[in-house]
Design the sequence.
């Protein structure tokens, strides 16, 4: 699950959905805070899961929130960061500060934005940026987010790159002979014109990845954003998924 | 894995190698067994020659990925796949004759060509329904089982509509097998199921004439020629080919996929009902297009295929075969009108649909002369005329509607059977008002609804229009 962005409604809908569908391990790819009205709850929930064995990495909005640094962000994002900074307590700030930029597990790599220079938060949006990430690691499968648009990139044994738009609920075998880069959609602020929250499930036994969309209570999430005094566009955009 | 070191008796991941089979172009095949299974199995092991051969490696990946997702009688059952260190695929061994063996006897009689063609078309339709386009259809990739069913093998170049296309970016040149590659594949479009219909057209052409429509071009540049140069009409090569078969073959070989059959099911339908094939200029022509027409096509031939937004399931859903089962009795007049309205609504939503109008002539199928009325006129023929009369109101193009009178004892079973054999996607039928007898014994429509292999729409008259129970037989 990636880019939860303080959206409690979307996050809990996804967690419920995952529990009902036999998920037994969780990986969080960063940006727990920023944009949404419940950063504290989201971070607390992630902390609980990590204590129980989940994996979590750092996102750029998380780093910005604890440092209260907004350079390079648009006005709405900057306002959200400043507000978020004031919401977090010491325990939550310490948790964020202790998160790694990436985690390697077996033949997989988990990172927020890209395996290539993770601290620069490069967007993986097309073949060139994908190729840089794929070439930067030996991992068989890399999982990232940051763009809020689901996509799947792959590199064959002969070094050819290709992209694919995943089809919801269709299991994609991550074949062993090539390397894969799965860009997750966003749980809390989708940007691919589909307002439903997005996460993905990896079946380790079959090594197959399935992207999932979970509709959630957008109205409540949006209302909370507006009630909190955050820029209203951050609320209204949730209805469009853009 | 070095193929030379394999020997009978060797065990790989629980599979015992029994004996080697004839090798293919890119793989070795071994009959294998496993203690827990009676099913005859074959293990396919890619041949890794010197250097890395992308088409072998990637083709193997593709087959591993896609075969595991296919099911049904027209595909060898997937059993297991090896991993990166030791690649292999174990699948069901399919006994039967490869269509390649038929090539020794070409040209075949039209009826036999149509029969083989229909079997392959059925298999293709099943494949397309599972979101897979074969893209390398040729005689050596079709096995006819003893019971007649066609099994499609070798999925190394195939494409699953909902999975990444592993082959797409691999090569600068188009991939496929020269004589069978469709024009859109030459333009590197790997997303059109009608490409398989083109390849089937090439097979039918070869089986019925003994010649290949586009020769055996070796290089990619020569492949482009089919974008503008149409083939010699089959009847020119073999005058025993009837017009309906030429019509079917040339329609499959149309350069623009939109001018071919919309689905394999519709192609199978025509192959099974030659007397109902709508004949156009294609059917009787004996000459190829003139120089001017060819030149214009050459000028307009695109370098690359236009982008494709459609999905396979969208394509199949837009070209269904609809069956209207009609009761021609005098008391069902109102119901027939309601049925026509319902069928019209269905056809409006699917402009590519074909309509099969069916009537069941009830009675034992004994002698042809049994169904004769008091004046000695054939009931069968009368019903056929009545069916056509009913369908006139629907204003469907002639080449999209067919009429059939089926003589059977059990109407429901006849309808279900017909639907199953002709890959009907949607049955529309009427149900008369309920009567005590019908409730007790079960109506035809209830049985069809329970057992049909597809969607069934049951049309009823609104309560006010139903004649009183006592008035009906």
Sequence:
């Amino acid at each position: 699950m990636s880019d939860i962005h303080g959206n409690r409604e979307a996050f809990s809908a996804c967690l419920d959905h995952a529990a009902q569908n036999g998920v037994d391990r969780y990986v969080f790819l960063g940006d727990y805070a920023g944009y949404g009205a419940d950063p504290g709850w989201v971070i607390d929930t992630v902390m609980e899961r990590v204590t129980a064995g989940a994996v979590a990495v750092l996102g750029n909005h998380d780093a910005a929130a604890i440092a209260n640094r907004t350079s390079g962000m648009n006005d709405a994002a900057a306002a959200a960061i400043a507000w978020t900074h004031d919401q977090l307590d010491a325990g939550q700030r310490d948790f964020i500060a202790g998160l790694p930029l990436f985690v390697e597990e077996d033949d997989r790599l988990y990172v927020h934005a890209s395996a290539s220079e993770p601290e620069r938060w490069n967007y993986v949006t097309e073949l060139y940026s994908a190729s840089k990430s794929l070439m930067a690691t030996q991992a068989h499968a890399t999982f990232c987010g940051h763009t809020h648009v689901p996509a799947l990139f792959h590199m064959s044994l002969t070094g050819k790159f290709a992209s694919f738009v995943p089809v919801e609920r269709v299991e994609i075998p991550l074949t062993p002979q090539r390397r894969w880069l799965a860009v997750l959609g966003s749980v809390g602020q989708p940007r691919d014109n589909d307002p439903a929250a997005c996460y993905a499930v990896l079946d380790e036994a079959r090594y197959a990845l399935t992207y999932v969309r979970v509709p959630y209570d957008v109205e409540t999430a949006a209302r909370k954003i507006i009630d909190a005094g955050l820029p209203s566009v951050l609320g209204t955009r949730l209805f469009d998924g853009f | 894995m070095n193929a030379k070191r394999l020997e009978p008796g060797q065990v790989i991941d629980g599979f015992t190698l029994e004996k080697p089979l004839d090798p293919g172009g890119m793989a070795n095949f071994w009959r294998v067994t496993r203690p827990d299974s009676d099913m005859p199995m074959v293990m396919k092991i890619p041949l890794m020659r010197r250097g890395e051969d992308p088409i072998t490696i990637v083709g193997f990946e593709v087959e591993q990925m896609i075969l595991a997702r296919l099911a049904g009688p027209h595909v060898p059952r997937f059993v297991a796949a090896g991993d990166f260190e030791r690649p292999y695929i174990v699948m069901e061994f399919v006994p039967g004759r490869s269509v390649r063996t038929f090539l020794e006897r070409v040209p075949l009689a039209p009826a036999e060509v149509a029969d083989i063609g229909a079997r392959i078309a059925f298999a293709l339709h099943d494949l397309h329904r599972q979101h897979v386009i074969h893209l390398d259809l040729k005689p050596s990739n079709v096995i006819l089982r003893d019971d007649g069913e066609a099994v499609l093998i070798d999925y190394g170049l195939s494409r699953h509509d909902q999975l990444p296309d592993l082959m797409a970016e691999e090569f600068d040149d188009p991939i496929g097998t020269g004589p069978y590659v469709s024009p859109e594949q030459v333009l590197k479009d790997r997303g059109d199921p009608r490409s398989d219909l083109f390849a089937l057209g090439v097979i039918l052409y070869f089986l019925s004439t003994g010649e290949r429509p586009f020769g055996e071009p070796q290089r990619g540049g020569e492949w482009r020629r089919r974008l503008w140069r149409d083939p010699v009409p089959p009847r020119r090569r073999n005058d025993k080919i009837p017009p309906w078969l030429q019509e079917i073959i040339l329609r499959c070989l149309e350069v623009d996929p939109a001018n071919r059959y919309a689905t394999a099911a519709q192609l199978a339908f025509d192959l099974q009902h030659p007397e109902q094939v709508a004949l156009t200029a294609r059917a009787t022509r004996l000459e190829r297009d003139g120089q001017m027409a060819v030149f214009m096509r050459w000028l307009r031939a695109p370098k690359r295929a236009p982008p494709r937004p459609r999905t396979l399931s969208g394509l199949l859903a837009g070209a269904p075969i609809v069956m209207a089962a009609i009761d021609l009795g005098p008391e069902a007049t109102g119901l027939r009108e309601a049925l026509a309205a319902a069928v019209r609504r269905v056809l409006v939503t699917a402009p590519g649909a074909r309509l099969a109008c069916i009537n069941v002539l009830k009675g034992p199928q004994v002698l042809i002369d049994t169904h004769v009325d008091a004046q000695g006129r054939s009931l069968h023929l009368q019903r056929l005329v009545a069916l056509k009369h009913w369908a006139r109101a629907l204003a469907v193009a002639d080449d999209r509607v067919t009429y059939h009178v089926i003589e059977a004892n059990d109407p429901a079973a006849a309808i279900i059977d017909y639907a199953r054999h002709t890959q009907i996607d949607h049955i529309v039928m009427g149900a008369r008002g309920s009567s005590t007898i019908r409730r007790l014994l079960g109506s035809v429509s209830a049985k069809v609804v329970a057992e049909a292999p597809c969607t069934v729409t049951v049309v009823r008259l609104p309560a006010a229009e139903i004649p009183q129970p006592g008035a009906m037989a």
Remarks:
- The two ends of chain A are 18 Å apart (CA to CA).
- The first strand of chain A starts at residue 27 and ends at 28.
- The domain at 8-240 of chain A is CATH 3.60.21.10 (Purple Acid Phosphatase; chain A, domain 2).
- Residues 8-20 of chain A form the longest helix (13 residues).
